[in-house]
Amino acid sequence: MDCNVYANGPYLTLHASQEGPFEVDIGHAGPVTDLLTGKTVGVGPKFLLPLAKAQTRVLVIPGYPQ
Prior knowledge:
Immunoglobulin-like
């Protein structure tokens, strides 16, 4: 699946160029939250994140200084 990925510090932005579940690997254990909703979207180190075509999600990765 194609997905544009941008990362900076604790933030991970995903933009889907097509619909599908995308495997996210943050490299360590911990809950990953959506920056805008505050809801947990998965638990690392790996999880599947469903995205619609053209959908963008900004995630907060645990373990980084805020």
